[in-house]
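Protein fold
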Amino acid sequence: MKKVTLITSIGAGLEYYDFVIYALLATYLSKNFFPQTDPSLALLQTLGIFAMGYIARPLGGVLFGLLGDQRGRKNTFLIAIMLMAFATFAIGILPTYLQLGWMASLGLLLLRLMQGMAFGAELPGAITFLSEHARGNNRGLHAGFMVASLSLGATVGSLLIMLLTSLLTPTQMLAWGWRIPFLLGGLLAAVGYWLRRKTQETPYFINYKQTHPQPTAIITTLFKYHRKPLYQGLGIMLFTACFIIFALGLPAYLHEYFNYELAEVYRANTLGLLWSALVLPLFGLLSDKIGRKLLLILTTLLFALTSPLLFQLLHLHQPAALIGFMLCYQTIIAATAACYVPLLAELFPTSVRYTGIALCYNIGGCLSGFTPFIVTSIMRYTGQTLWVVLFFSLLALITLTAAMSLDYQRQRELT
């Protein structure tokens, strides 16, 4: 189980690094792939393409989910990670707007769509694979380590960009420094493929295929017999997904609207991500002890009540306040993420688990992909943080309602 958790976590972390560096480099991408007659509009266009990657996630999730439920979790894993490696490396060598005009913007869009399809398969596959190897009484702990790897993947990306912005001049960073994280990400994903080849298929899938050798009408079965878990899973995902995605867009958001220096934001963001990676296993263990439902309810309720105070920290314009904001922000993400991973796996039976998780995770992810765009639009046209607070509080209440609808208190064994 330790080996399974380690390999699954490494692969998921590498893919997450590949997926999130787009958002972390949004400022540089907007200046390289769109005309600069209106820099604010260029940033919105860049974030729009960022959102397109999330639109592609449900398609990738369904296609790979069907493959995973019919042919096995392991082989689906391998295909997904190679697709991500290709797309990420290709962004690193893509000509800019000055060289190709709108063809460069189109190329960025197509490669981002490929990233979205690959990531749409990766996390549902990791959740399925890990959960089908773990026992119910420690599934949360192992899930905590796996989700911690996502924070570490984002941390590596944030740390690398922080170092690059510190070592290179703004001109160098804009000219070629932004390519380094993408090129490195493509190579790291290939390492993840090599590691993943050493894993074994899950016992739940092997047992299911031995007793059900004929293909199952997975989509029909899901929507006919498992509609309630689909709604619950989507609701459980919504707040966490949007909160995570907004975290990826924070460097551009804080630089544009709060006048924080990018290097300062990346530094605080890196500390927050490291903190999240440290506390995620602890929250996973806590979910095994007190129940995922209760922990998710308490966390979302606490956020809804205290979010105005949290966002008020940004108006202090002090490095300590910024770091405090990031630490609190990532603590909320850690508590909710440690719950949703085992919860999604426990909602569906083996026959449709990969596809069911993929639909919930990726539809939630698709909707959340518009979060940076929505928040940036809110700030551009209102200039009021209060509306951002209300937006996230509403999402927290939706997830709270979904958690309260679950018909079990602690955890359940997989079927």
User: Anything to note?
Assistant: The chain has one domain: 2-404. Residues 39-71 form the longest helix (33 residues). The CA atoms of residues 95 and 104 lie 6 Å apart.
